[in-house]
């Protein structure tokens, strides 16, 4: 073989190899499976990289997953966002794990969401995320769920895109608008697009039209952008049509007026809510102090016992946290009422008619109860869980929402109040209680066992304190000092409302709550408290018997 | 009092009394003879932490930490050939009682060193006593600064080792432009917020982008404040809350944030008083993603930390107990003191205090803590995100250790003041402009 031939052969070989490579590449490009199947090849591998990923590399990986998986990764993203994404230590398989009632974890495939059996907590390692990853995930989920069939998913998606209005999100929103069926969501999308038009369109009639659409829109982004627009024309003299400027100012003004109105409602709700807490803690005292005349310094500790009862009930039924509060209410009533009856029988009845001694004795009892709780449960605060129906808020619009826990407690306080009123007005026990309160000797002469009535009345007041404790366990810390924070408030309300008058307690607690909350934004929380106290002191100077003084003989004694 | 106790036979009583008298005589004479140090056969370590009252929750842990360190040191053979003996007193969260108990420790028990205090007000109450009786106090909690005493070593963070790096982190990493400074109404939050406000303004943040809010101790109705924060944060710029809210008030605050729909990625809260101990036993769901700035987290992976956690859990006999930053500060303080005593060869306060300066000890996060001339430590600063198991995930840390600054550079009154306990200055309150020492150390 000549050299030439050899070289030629080599060239041919080389050429063939080259062609082969080109052909393979072309083949790969053309014969590659359609997109849906392609993702099936690389997506699990990508998802698998989540196992043990460094926090710094996570945002990048999330981006890749979004591109590769599209809507298929939404369950995975949501699990990651909620802290439900783990990997198995044995094979580093990324799984979605949720705590099962049995105490172990139920596993599901991270992508296919098919069950994968169970595992102990020890066998799993959590994939941890940071705030940066969280907000990235939120955005990604918004982009991916914008076209979902479920309107409850589309709503937050639209809200998210509205907040980050740029060319990409506008394009997404435009295509979403075309297929949106829910009028409410469609209106939000239109507002978002109108805002975009206003900001970028050179066409003045279009800008004016956009402003029409934006009138009354409460999203913070709208008023921020409008304010920025007005400010920029003022400062830099940007070229904007005066008609547009005038209209924008008018729209902004009306938005602000709307917001002010909702803020007023919100403050009113805060006041009512604070009032409802005051009502709950004071109602029991309105019975023991108002009706019986016992200065019970251990009232706060009876509230605390109610809160601890809630804790114990949750310990006993860990799988049914949602119902635990329903069980806790009667349980707390019984525990606190029993404690109250014991206190009355063992101490208070011997001090009848000696208020100073009663005060000191009950103060001692309050310290005793605190220390008992400290010894039994430890001085640390105990964890009382909030059922899911008590978390979150009822969103009425973009600026006005009511938190569920406060809302339920408001309703609950009123229910307790009505129930107590019925007991006092409609039952024979209530009749006897009122009789003893009005004239002990006469009641005795009529054959009422005043001793027995005293004990039951004190038990009733204490039991209601216990119920207040259940409600407070949802708002504040459950610890040995819980009661101390509320004892002054309860006395304040009862004295302000008028000793011995339940309606006075109702009006007193709500008015104090509302006054406090309207003062707070202006003066700060510390000064608001002081001002309310000063107000009450002055008020008592003028009307020593409170808002609704008891009239007649009982009032004189 | 049981009557049985008095039924000691007269002879026995006499011998007992004799023994006691001779012991006292020995102790007394030795004390009279050597002014510098009382030749006792043990080195006494005073522990001044509240074991009852409101602060007991936090301080009991530190008492146990000191006791654990003493036990470990004794296993290693003690110090200078002597055993260590812990003297525990209970100041019961009562500030004036702190001063009385300090006097008791220094005069009656003649302790060589005191580890103690948590709140600033308790430290301020102890300060005149340790200075008068020339005692030695190790203070292990983060505080507002503006102090440096000859007799106190501060092993917790000064504001520039916690608050300022936290603000830097929010600014640089999270691009925060609006600031809510929320705190409980007392000295630490007020001073810290004053420093932060000056720092933010110096770095170009305008007045209207800072909101300052104070609440009473144990505040539980956060509705309006959280609504205000929400409104403040809805103005289009990234907003963060810098929280010096203390103790129990934190849980209702975070709960209200969660209920009003403010997530950590919208408005992050960075706290200086929320650590592992505070998070144990509470429902952490509403806190996940919020931040805390400390010099130590239990979750930091280092050999020293793993050993420390193991030692702590074994000592306290409870696998669920956590470790926290003030515990690390106590650990560093104890080790520094032990090393200084070894170096000085005595427990005499002045000699040990001199030996302390420049002393180094490994901290639990893998670097080395140095005691500076202003009696403050150089330590790394870490920012962690709260996880749902009550632990922190470190998201940021300083590259080097940060020296603690006793007198803040951002307050007009203390800008020119430095603390330097080495000759020729030897002053906790030295004005560099007038070159004068005011003589007052706090």
UniProtKB/TrEMBL annotation, chain B:
Q: Is Signal there in the keyword field?
A: yes
The keyword Signal is annotated on this UniProt entry: yes
Keywords attached to this Swiss-Prot or TrEMBL record, sorted alphabetically, are:
Signal
Q: Signal sequence span per UniProt? A: 1-39
* Entries under InterPro entries matching the protein: ABC_urea-bd_UrtA (IPR017777), Peripla_BP_I (IPR028082)
Protein name in UniProt:
Urea ABC transporter substrate-binding protein
Task: Name its species.
Answer: Exilibacterium tricleocarpae
Q: Which gene encodes it?
A: urtA
């Amino acid at each position: 073989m000549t050299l030439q031939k050899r070289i030629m052969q080599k060239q041919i070989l080389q050429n063939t190899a080259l062609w082969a490579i080109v052909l393979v590449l072309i083949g790969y490009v053309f014969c590659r499976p359609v997109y849906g199947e392609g993702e099936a090849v690389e997506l699990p591998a990508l998802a698998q990289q989540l196992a043990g990923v460094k926090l710094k590399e996570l945002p990048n990986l999330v981006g890749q997953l979004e591109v590769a998986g599209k809507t298929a990764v939404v369950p995975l993203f949501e699990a990651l966002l909620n802290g439900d994404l783990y990997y198995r230590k044995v094979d580093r398989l990324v799984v979605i794990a949720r705590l099962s009632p049995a105490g172990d974890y139920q596993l599901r495939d991270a992508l296919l969401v098919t069950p994968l059996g169970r595992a102990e907590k020890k066998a799993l390692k959590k994939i941890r995320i940071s705030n940066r990853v969280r907000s990235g995930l939120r955005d990604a989920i918004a982009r991916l769920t914008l076209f979902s069939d479920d309107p409850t998913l589309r709503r937050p998606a639209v809200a998210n895109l509205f907040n980050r209005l740029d060319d990409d999100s506008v394009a997404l929103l435009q295509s979403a608008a075309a297929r949106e069926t829910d009028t409410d969501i469609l209106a939000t999308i239109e507002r978002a697009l109108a805002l975009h038009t206003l900001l970028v369109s050179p066409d003045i009639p279009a800008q004016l039209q956009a402003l029409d659409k934006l009138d009354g829109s409460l999203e913070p982004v709208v008023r921020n952008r409008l304010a920025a627009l007005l400010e920029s024309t003022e400062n830099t003299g940007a070229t904007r049509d005066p008609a547009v400027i005038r209209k924008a100012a008018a729209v902004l003004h009306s938005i602000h007026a709307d917001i002010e109105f909702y803020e007023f409602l919100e403050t009113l709700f805060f006041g009512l809510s604070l009032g409802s807490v005051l009502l709950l803690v004071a109602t029991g005292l309105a019975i023991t102090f108002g009706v019986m005349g016992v200065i019970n310094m251990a009232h706060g500790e009876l509230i605390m016992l109610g809160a601890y009862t809630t804790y114990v009930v949750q310990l006993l039924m860990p799988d049914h946290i949602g119902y635990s509060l329903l069980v806790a209410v009667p349980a707390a009533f019984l525990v606190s009422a029993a404690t109250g009856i014991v206190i009355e029988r063992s101490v208070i009845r011997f001090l009848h008619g000696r208020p100073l001694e009663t005060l000191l004795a009950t103060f001692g009892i309050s310290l005793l109860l605190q220390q008992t709780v400290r010894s039994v449960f430890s001085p640390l605060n105990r964890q009382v869980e909030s059922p899911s129906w008590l978390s979150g808020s009822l969103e009425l619009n973009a600026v006005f929402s009511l938190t569920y826990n406060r809302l339920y407690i408001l309703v609950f306080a009123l229910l307790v109040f009505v129930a107590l009123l019925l007991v006092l007005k409609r039952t024979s026990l209530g009749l006897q209680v009122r009789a003893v309160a009005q004239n002990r000797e006469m009641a005795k002469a009529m054959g009422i066992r005043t001793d027995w009535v005293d004990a039951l009345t004190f038990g009733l007041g204490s039991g209601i304190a216990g119920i207040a404790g259940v409600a407070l366990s949802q708002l504040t810390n459950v610890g040995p000092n819980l009661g101390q924070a509320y004892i002054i408030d309860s006395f304040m309300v009862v004295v302000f409302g008028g000793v011995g008058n339940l309606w006075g307690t109702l009006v007193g607690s709500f008015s104090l709550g509302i006054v406090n909350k309207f003062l707070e934004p202006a003066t700060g929380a510390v000064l608001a408290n002081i001002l309310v106290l000063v107000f009450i002191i002055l008020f008592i100077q003028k009307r020593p018997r409170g808002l609704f003084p008891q009239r007649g003989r009982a009032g004189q004694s | 009092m049981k009557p049985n106790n008095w039924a000691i036979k007269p002879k026995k009583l006499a011998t007992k009394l004799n023994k006691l008298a001779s012991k006292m005589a020995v102790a007394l004479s030795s004390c009279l003879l050597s002014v510098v140090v009382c030749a006792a056969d043990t080195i006494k370590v005073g522990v001044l932490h509240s074991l009852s009252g409101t602060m007991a929750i936090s301080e009991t842990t530190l008492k146990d930490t000191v006791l654990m360190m003493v036990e470990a040191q004794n296993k290693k053979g003690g110090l200078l050939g002597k055993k260590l003996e812990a003297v525990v007193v209970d100041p019961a969260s009562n500030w004036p009682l702190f001063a009385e108990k300090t006097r008791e420790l220094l005069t009656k028990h003649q302790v060589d060193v005191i580890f103690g205090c948590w709140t600033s007000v308790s430290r301020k109450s102890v300060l005149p006593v340790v200075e008068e009786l020339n005692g030695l106090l190790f203070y292990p909690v983060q505080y507002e600064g503006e102090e440096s005493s000859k007799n106190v070593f501060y092993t917790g963070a000064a504001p520039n080792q916690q608050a300022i790096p936290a603000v830097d982190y929010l600014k640089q990493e999270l691009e925060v432009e609006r600031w809510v400074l929320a705190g409980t109404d007392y000295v630490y939050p007020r001073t810290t917020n004053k420093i932060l406000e000056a720092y933010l303004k110096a770095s170009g943040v305008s007045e209207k982008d800072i909101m300052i809010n104070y609440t009473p101790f144990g505040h539980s109705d956060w509705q309006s404040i959280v609504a205000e924060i929400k409104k403040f944060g809805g103005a289009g710029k990234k907003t963060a809350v810098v929280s010096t809210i203390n103790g129990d008030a934190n849980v209702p605050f975070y709960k209200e944030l969660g209920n009003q729909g403010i997530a950590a990625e919208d408005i992050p809260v960075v706290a200086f008083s929320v650590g592992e101990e505070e998070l144990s036993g509470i429902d952490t769901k509403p806190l996940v993603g919020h931040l805390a700035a400390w010099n130590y987290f239990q979750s930091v992976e280092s050999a020293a930390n793993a050993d420390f956690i193991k030692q702590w859990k074994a000592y306290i006999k409870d696998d669920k107990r956590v470790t926290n930053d003030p515990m690390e500060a106590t650990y560093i303080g104890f080790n520094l003191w032990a090393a200084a005593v070894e170096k000085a060869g005595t427990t005499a306060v002045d000699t040990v205090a001199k030996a302390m300066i420049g002393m180094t000890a490994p901290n639990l996060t893998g670097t080395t803590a140095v005691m500076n001339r202003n009696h403050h430590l150089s330590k790394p600063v870490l920012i962690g995100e709260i996880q749902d198991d009550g632990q922190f995930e470190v998201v940021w840390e300083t590259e080097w250790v940060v020296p603690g600054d006793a007198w803040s550079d951002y307050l007009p009154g203390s800008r020119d003041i430095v603390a330097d306990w080495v000759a020729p200055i030897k002053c906790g309150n030295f004005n560099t402009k007038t070159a004068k020492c005011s003589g007052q150390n706090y």
